[in-house]
Amino acid sequence: MNRITQKFKEKAADEKLMSLFITAGYPDLESTVEIVLGMEENGADMIELGMPFSDPLADGPTIQYSSDIAIKNGITIDKIFEMVVEIRKRSEIPIILMGYMNPVLRYGVQEFCEKASRSGVDGLILPDIPVDEDEIIREHAEANNLPLIHLVAPNSSDIRMKLADSKSSGFVYCVSVTGVTGARDGKEVSDSVDRFIERVRENIIGNPVMVGFGIKSHEDAKRIASNADGFIVGSALINTIKNSYPKPEWKQDLYSLVYSLKFRN
Amino acid sequence: MQEVITKYQQPNARGYFGQYGGKFVPEILIPAVRALEEEYERASKDPSFNSQLNELLDEYVGRPTKLTFANRLTEHYGKARIYMKREDLCHTGAHKINNAIGQVLLAQRMGKKRIIAETGAGQHGVATATACAKFGLECVVYMGAEDMVRQKLNVDRMHLLGAEVRSVESGSKTLKDATNEAIRDWVTNVEDTFYIIGSVVGPHPYPMMVRNFHRVIGDETKRQIMEAEGKLPDYLIACVGGGSNAMGFFYPFIEDESVNIIGIEAAGFGVDSGKTAATLTKGTPGILHGSMSYLLHDKNGQIELAHSISAGLDYPGIGPEHSHLFDTGRVKYNAVTDDEAMEAVKLLSKKEGIIPALETAHAFAWLENLMSTTTEDQVVIVNCSGRGDKDMGTISENL
Ligand SMILES: Cc1ncc(COP(=O)(O)O)c(C=O)c1O
Question: Which of A181, A191, B49, B125 has its CA 20 to 30 Å from the CA of residue A109?
Answer without folding.
Answer: A181
